[in-house]
Amino acid sequence: MDVIEVIRAKRDGGELTPEQIDWVIGAYTRGEIAEEQMAALAMAIFLKGMKRGEVSRWTEAMLASGERLDFSDLARPTTDKHSTGGVGDKITLPLTPTVAACGAAVPQLSGRGLGHTGGTLDKLESVPGWRASLSTQEMRRVLVDTGGVICAAGSGLAPADRKLYALRDVTGTVESIPLIAASIMSKKLAEGTGSLVLDVKVGSGAFMKDVASARELARTMVDIGNDHGVRTVALLTDMEAPLGRQVGNALEVAEAVEVLSGGGPVDVVELTVALARQMLTAAGLVPGEDGVKDPAEALRDGSALESWKNLIRAQGGDPNAPLPEAAERRVVLAPASGVVTRLDAYQVGLAAWRLGAGRARKEDAVSFGAGVTLHAKPGEKVTAGEPLFTLHADEAERFDRAVQALEGAFDIGDKEGWKARPLVIDRVS
Ligand code: URA
User: Fold this and answer.
1) Same domain, 87 and 18
2) pLDDT at residue 49 is higher than 70
3) In this structure, what CATH number is given to the domain that contains residue 185?
4) Which of 13, 131, 240, 330 is deepest in the core (most CB within 10 A)?
5) Do 92 and 8 have their domain in common?
């Protein structure tokens, strides 16, 4: 086959054949297609799109580039959640132990943060002793013993995606619905879950800025999952404002523990419970019936918290150890009195990133204690001169740039200027 022919076919709006797709992914993974040629093809796909059959085959080819885990012999049904990424999105932390406490097993391969969105592994690594890298055998043992495991994807899973994602990141081809769908789903199918719930974020802090694109991404991924025998549903959820009141690694772990202890911000609780119910249902367990505990009850009765402690200990962490704190703090005061009518997730994420919570390059280290505490969320009252944000950083020099990111990030007005937004916008199945 000739790669230039494949590039030309897509450039001119044609449909790639299954043979072309299998060959391109295989040859690229083996290093037989030059990066610039794959970049040209990715851009052609970005501009011309792919048909349902093409996306499905592209996903399969990436899946076939590596190993596929199998947990179908476990006593519990397996289920997982994947979020397309947001600001303050710590939901995996309370969700995994909650679903485990209700009777399903959650094999969760997670990533690290890049850019303004945080990564689950960075958050969990702020727990002293906790280890993200597990062998497949260790992963299975933790899953059997505790009902959940959250770890880094080994290099053997969907290696084609690993290579292609790095290329897309530097060629302006990340925000393509077929490429995002195939990238996420190849990894999720490789992880061996029996069912999957996708949390597709919509709004300023998300990849998808409008509901129509988010719905299209959700539809594409749900179809791929179901076509491959993994029962898949998606919730479209709001990411116009950050989730919860804490943005930053250890800050978010502390907030997740509050939720697991029966408290915490209402939006984090609502989304945890909504996603947990979807996961249990997708796994064939009906919450609140046949002895299956409802997730809201697991948060209230301490069983989810117990499950969190087991999960953390099983990966070497100490759930009772104090979490790291940043060396410096700066408080930003509200410039006016009124109601917060807008709080931009992207800009808060950018501020947290500038404070050291995120990384600019894959090899950078994150600061565990860095981040932003939100003293008021949209719809809440503030008084001029009272704290609006607390910034946390290890170096005081970081504060000015973070404050700049927050300058246009919020509006304060009167109650009439604020309209509540539903957290769960739609469900796609
Ligand atoms: N997350 C992924 O894993 N892949 C993408 O393409 C985008 C977000």
Assistant:
1) no
2) yes
3) 3.40.1030.10
4) 240
5) no
- Closest Cα to atom 6 of ligand 1: 180
Residue nearest to atom 3 of ligand 1 (CA): 184
Q: Which active-site residues does the annotation give?
A: 82, 161, 168, 183, 187
Same domain, residue pair 335 and 233: no
pLDDT at residue 330 is higher than 80: yes
Query: Is residue 68 one of the residues assigned to a domain?
Result: no
Q: What is the CATH number of the domain that holds 361?
A: 3.90.1170.30
- On average, the pLDDT of the chain sits at 95
What spacing in Å lies between the alpha carbon of 175 and ligand 1's midpoint? 9
Q: Are residues 205 and 125 in the same domain?
A: yes
> What pLDDT is attached to residue 114?
64
> What's the CA gap between 366 and 205, in Å, rounded?
20
Provide the number of structural domains found in the chain: 3
Q: Is 320 within a domain?
A: no
CB contact set of 73 (below 8 Å; sequence gap of 6+): none
pTM of the predicted model over 0.85:
yes
Residues 252, 127: one domain?
yes
Distance 241 CA to ligand 1 centre (A): 21
Strands ordered across the beta sheet of 195-202: 79-83, 195-202, 231-238, 424-428
| 394 Cα: distance to centroid of ligand 1 (angstroms) | 30
User: How is residue 326 written in tokens?
Assistant: 């940043």
* pLDDT confidence bin for 156, thresholds 50/70/90: confident
Q: Ligand 1 test: best mutation among 120, 174, 184, 201, most atoms within 8 Å of CB?
A: 184
Domain of residue 22, residue span = 3-49
Show the ligand 1 pocket: residues with CB < 6 angstroms: 165, 174, 179-180, 183-184
For ligand 1, the distance from its centroid to the CA atom of residue 159, given in whole angstroms, is 14
Determine the pLDDT at residue 78.
Answer: 97
Distances in Å between the Cα of 68 and the Cα atoms of 17, 154, 229 are: 24, 11, 14
Tell me which of 165, 196, 200, 208 to substitute to probe ligand 1's pocket, judged by most ligand atoms within 8 Å of the beta carbon: 165
Q: What is the DSSP letter of 170?
A: T
Distance 176 CA to ligand 1 centre (A): 10
Alpha carbons 51 and 104: distance in angstroms, whole number: 34
Q: Of all protein residues, whose CA lies closest to atom 2 belonging to ligand 1? A: 184
- 367 and 260 in one domain? no
Task: Give the Cα separation of 260 and 295 in Å (integer).
Answer: 11
pLDDT of residue 8: 98
